[in-house]
């Protein structure tokens, strides 16, 4: 019987000839990623080793990645102390895939992992972050886990008792209209599936539109697959995956990709034609409350956010810079831009995007999770409205339970920055 | 038998259960103070230990959606409550099992605040309304972890078996 991509990956990682949805396996983990919540993982990891007489070491330091991004630079002594403890643990365990608070190699974990070639097609990737699904963009099976589960992975090198998820096949065809792209596609799909439509399942992405899409767009789509509840999103590795890893991530070794069998079993198949898709907006307070831009156009916005692990890549910043160049962010609206990595920030400097955005009135912040999860900077005032290219709009998400967050593409965010109200970029 | 102390709607997110701005607090011993922080009155009741151990939080569909933050499970575990919901988001469920927080999935559940529920091996009985609701059993793959008392002892045993 044929296997889906994830079934093939799990079979290989569990040392089995074949697996099917529902089987319980214990796959070897190829990459285990954490950010500041490594502070809790360290605590739980130490507890696992208590009374064993064994030293609390990670199973393979070359397979552990730790990236500071949620609160950089630290916003409080508590965070700074957590980061300090993590640094000490990194040094004691010889963890090399460590990205500290730095303007050269720092950034958001879900950009750093692809950018440095840490993720390969066929890998099993776990991360203590729900948006670990992002790495499916490179053909890996990547999913979010809690801190205690990561402590278990650090100890054993295995993900224990994993149930092989069923897969939904999403086939996307057609050419995007102008000002419409990957973010609109994923918002549209989440609206169709609902926030729990893919709970415990994988979204496997296919079709001409996906084949032609850059890794940047695929990362946005896989990043937000979790917002439909999916365990993981995955784009089977192809020519674009190899191009990205060799040319952009600088990977020298031979890379093999994993494709699903033609007779693989899917629980559901969705077909989508993007040629008539309008810009999409997820309205407060749920990611599946998706409308087309014309339904909410004119809504007044106090804060525009462009960035994050969803849409803080160079092509996203280029869209914003092109629209804002020589113009001004509307009075009464503030615009925050945070690139997904220091490397992207540097490229945006070289290309003049940062200059364009700042001249227009945007505040360009250091790379990090920024305002997305309301822990650090860019909090909303009471009853303020944000329009953001990030991935979640739950009540309180941007630090204020009375605030409202609308989610959109970089094109919608940039067009709206100029007017101060939600604006259709096609009419810009 | 235990009382429903709050009955919540669908899509209760981890930001609702444990707001992101308290994520620098990680230790299970410290997270309970921030449970449902922005539901001011409920948070105050929890902190005042107004509810006996085993009290029940009722959720609708997709309880615990969103972030992988384990604080959302540890904060509820700290208050010794149980969650009974129509459906539960994957990572939250996994975290709950790993930490030993009781979560019961009951798709047709009808229960209001103040109702008395009895959780059996296969059903949830609403003693106030007299109705019975079938549970969906948690994945068999997780039983070993539950039986071991959580993922930490489970992993420790595996580690020792290897050594």
Task: Give a verbal description of the structure.
In chain A, about 60% of the residues are buried. The model of chain A has no long low-confidence stretch (mean pLDDT about 95). Chain A has helices at about 5-15, 40-50, 75-95, 110-115, 145-155, 180-195, 210, 215-225, 240-250, 295, 310, 315-325, 340-350, 355-360, 410-420; strands at about 25, 30-35, 65, 95-100, 125, 140-145, 160-165, 165-175, 200-205, 230-235, 270-275, 280, 290, 305, 335-340, 365, 385-390, 405. Chain A is α/β, with parallel strands linked by helices. In chain A, helix 12 (about 315-325) crosses helix 14 (about 355-360). Chain B is an alpha/beta fold and about 160 residues long. Chain B contains six helices and seven strands. Chains A and B meet through helix 2, helix 3, helix 5 and strand 7 of A and helix 4 and helix 6 of B.
Briefly characterize the structure.
The complex is a heterodimer of chains A (428) and B (163). Chain A has helices at residues 5-14, 38-49, 77-93, 109-115, 147-156, 182-193, 208-212, 215-225, 239-248, 293-296, 308-311, 314-324, 342-350, 353-359, 410-419, and strands spanning 24-25, 31-34, 64-67, 97-99, 124-127, 141-144, 162-163, 166-173, 201-206, 232-234, 268-273, 280-282, 290-292, 303-307, 334-338, 363-364, 385-388, 404-407.
Structural class designation of chain A? alpha/beta
Principal-axis shape of chain A: globular
**Largest interface summary:** A-B, 56 and 47 residues
Helix content of chain B: 25-40%
Strand order of the largest sheet of chain A: 4-3-2-5-6
Chain-averaged pLDDT of chain B: 96
